[in-house]
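Subject: sequence -> structure tokens, single chain

Hey, anyone have a minute? Need the predicted structure for the following. Not urgent.
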Amino acid sequence: MSSNLGFGEHNSLHASGLDSDSYSSEDALKSFWDLPALKKAPKSEVGEEIIEGNVIVREIIYEVPASDGKPIKIFAYYAYPAAKKNGKLPAIVWVHGGGSIADRNAVVHWASLGYAALAMDLPGKGGEARAKSRSEGPDMSDPLIFTVAPLPRESYLYLCVNSVCRAISFLQSREEVDSTRIGVLGYSWGGVITLLANGVDDRIAAACAVYGSGYIYEESFWSHGQYAELSFKDKRLWREHFDPSSYLKSLHGKTLFVSATQDIYYPLRGFVKTYREAECAKALYIALNKNHDLDEIGKKTIERWFEWALRSGPVLPSIEVKKTKTGFELSAKEPSQIASVSLAITDSADYAKAEWTSAELKAENGKWKASLSQNNPSALVYACDVLGGAVVEVLRLAPRQNRATN
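Reply:
Had a minute. Here:
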């Protein structure tokens, strides 16, 4: 896993006029979420089992409290291995992003790997892509995601986090599930929801946020769009309650952060800043020259993360970084497990358009040296192990030029 040394000399990345103010306290955020209610096993309807290969799949409906406390019904696929095994199963809650619905194939895949897995339709519908959602509630939309009036609980994200926490409660009620080994995996807005839930719910043992990050108000697809349209007061309320940066000091589960270098929705700087400031056991992977998309190594790394965090499987690589006069020196805790170490660089600070070039580094006495010039303002190191997983160290990132002012 990563050593968390990764910005080199670019401390300016972490400076912001907003960061110095404390908008919320941990106690205030805890009272905002009705955890005693969310931790209760929900009323649910479990459909007939369908055998698919070595997996049992069921369609379920479970209840989630809305902002007014009244329940809405959430649809989900639930799958687990058909074969009876000694001991209970670890479990995964799979959370889709915007413009998506529950993925049946995803729960079947995770069940085939030996997990119980649940994927819900987040509340309501919202656009053509979500027309087949079978969950009740308001439709997913950017305006509703950024709504905090008349109260912050009116935001669509409030219902989403409730849906994840109640999914955990459902899993804990199942006899085949180990209630102490539950993870959450979310993509895009699902990644944001994963971080929020991980900061709220202490039952989460492991998490993976793919693309979704904090500091949405500083640099994101919405920072100059839907977020910018809010009043000063509403911006402050939204940051306090729904930007994952408010929860980074209280993340409960071990967390893998996965992104892509050219992501236009949750750009690289904000994503890496989120990773760096997260106070939990953590690792980082960034798909090279991808925009809101993963490569095969990233997909394998996600599987390896939960295998380690929930089933005590082999740990991902652990890389230590030391700065030298000409660049950086890298060492591995277990050099024999490292298949390759590569240096990726770009001379562009416009990461949405930047092309990164990568070259493998040669080991010398169990260490790798990365020489960088001032013409390489951005540099990443990739450490891949013999089992197909990888982690990334951020050596340099160019500072962001235009900063949010309110």
